[in-house]
């Protein structure tokens, strides 16, 4: 069975990413075409790129990097839940992504963004990064607005139509994850 990690992409106090990711996870749990797991980058306590070697070599010296590598390598695809901070993704998520290389390669990714402009610029920022990591990012994405999907800009209350968007994105992540997993075995 395919495994998809739903990555909580913020470590900021008062973050909204955890509530959003849990909502995505609840929708995903209704499916039977993959296994889903919430992955909170906060739990890995990753300092700012403290590995002396390039992640392309996969020669990790620190225990936190080894644990992060093992977790990310265990998935066939990913859903990144990202806030938009100043037209980009969070520094914590970018740092977590940059810790690794080979663990991401030949996998698929989908995105759930949120912010004043529905997180679209953060997702576009991540698409560039995914291209460099040889990750197939899917077209369907979920954009949540701080103005309409969060009561008083804080309590997450997504509009009902977003569940359809989550499932469309998950359909594509699962399809591409399966294709890449099969194709990479044959290569």
Explain how this protein is built.
The chain is α/β, with parallel strands linked by helices. 37% of the residues lie in helices and 22% in strands. It has helices at residues 17-28, 63-73, 91-98, 120-132, 162-186; strands spanning 3-8, 35-40, 77-83, 108-115, 136-145, 150-151, 155-156. Strands 2-1-3-4-5 form a 5-stranded parallel sheet, with helices on both faces. Strands 6-7 form a two-stranded antiparallel ribbon. The radius of gyration is 16 Å and the shape is globular. The mean pLDDT is 96.
Summarize the structure.
With 187 residues, the chain is an alpha/beta fold. It has helices spanning 17-28, 63-73, 91-98, 120-132, 162-186; strands spanning 3-8, 35-40, 77-83, 108-115, 136-145, 150-151, 155-156.
